[in-house]
Amino acid sequence: MHRDLFSQSILAIALLILAVVPGANAQKDDDEEGRRRPPPASGPAAIVLYSDTGLRGTSVELTGDTLNFNTIRFNDKARSVEVKGGVWLLCSDSNLRGRCEYVDRTVRNLGDINLSGNISSAQATAYDKGPKSYDIAFFANGDFRGPFLGFDEGEATLSQYRFNDTASSVLVNRGTWLVCEHADYRGTCEFIDASMSNLGDIYLNDKISSFRRYDVRREGPWRRPVDPVYPPGGGGIGAGGVRGEQTMFYPSPTSRGARISNRDGAATRFCQDQGFSEAVYKAPGSVLSDVLCR
Fold this sequence. Notes:
Blueprint: H1 2-20, H2 26-35, E1 46-52, E2 56-62, E3 80-85, E4 88-93, E5 97-103, E6 121-124, E7 136-141, E8 145-151, E9 169-172, E10 177-182, E11 186-192, E12 210-213, H3 216-219, E13 242-243, E14 248-250, E15 254-255, E16 258-259, H4 266-273, E17 279-281, E18 291-293
Antiparallel strand pairs: 1-2, 1-3, 4-5, 4-6, 7-8, 7-9, 10-11, 10-12, 13-14, 14-18, 15-16, 17-18
């Protein structure tokens, strides 16, 4: 019993020391600070590079492009950066080559973007925000390189941004998305919930024309649309269908050139003949019309 009282006393003293000694919780505070993302910088383009993490050590300030850090005696030395204004492109090699990252806010540890001790050139860009400030960003080149466009909502066409059929990689920061081959979310569409360094992996390199958010909880798991099955020789069944994301709409289905009687189960049998599981809608009448297959 005396040992229990002694242990409790030692614990109470230790807690008191942690509460009153300055710096006892500094490491915890530093860890929490590291998890909080600072807001994007505003103001004229300026960036300060530090030789140590946490914005410590020797430093150099840039207000314009510097294509070779040997000229400022800071090549491969930066381990943290303070962005005072603008959006900056930081690259591992001189002349903006090698691995590059856009930054629009302070980075206390450049290891978070795989550039610690590995920056040799920098450029102030014309962008207002970096790609990581948007929910989704498309890049003209693979590996998240080249010109980019960032969005927080979907767009029915990228033509207005002169970025139609241009994207080769995509950075997904928040949300789940459908990226589609044609405007208005038509053509081949693919579901993405993570960044992709090569859109060729889903056969959409230089082919994206529209995109939108996809709410899995509301819309259900994404299933790629099923192409209709046509009879050998290209018969008439299924002709005139309009493809949706997960459905096919037939305004006036025919069989061997003739309209189909609207008997019980005829719409479902027609849809199954096209490779679908069921008919979810048909218009009333003596013959099948406005059939929606899923």
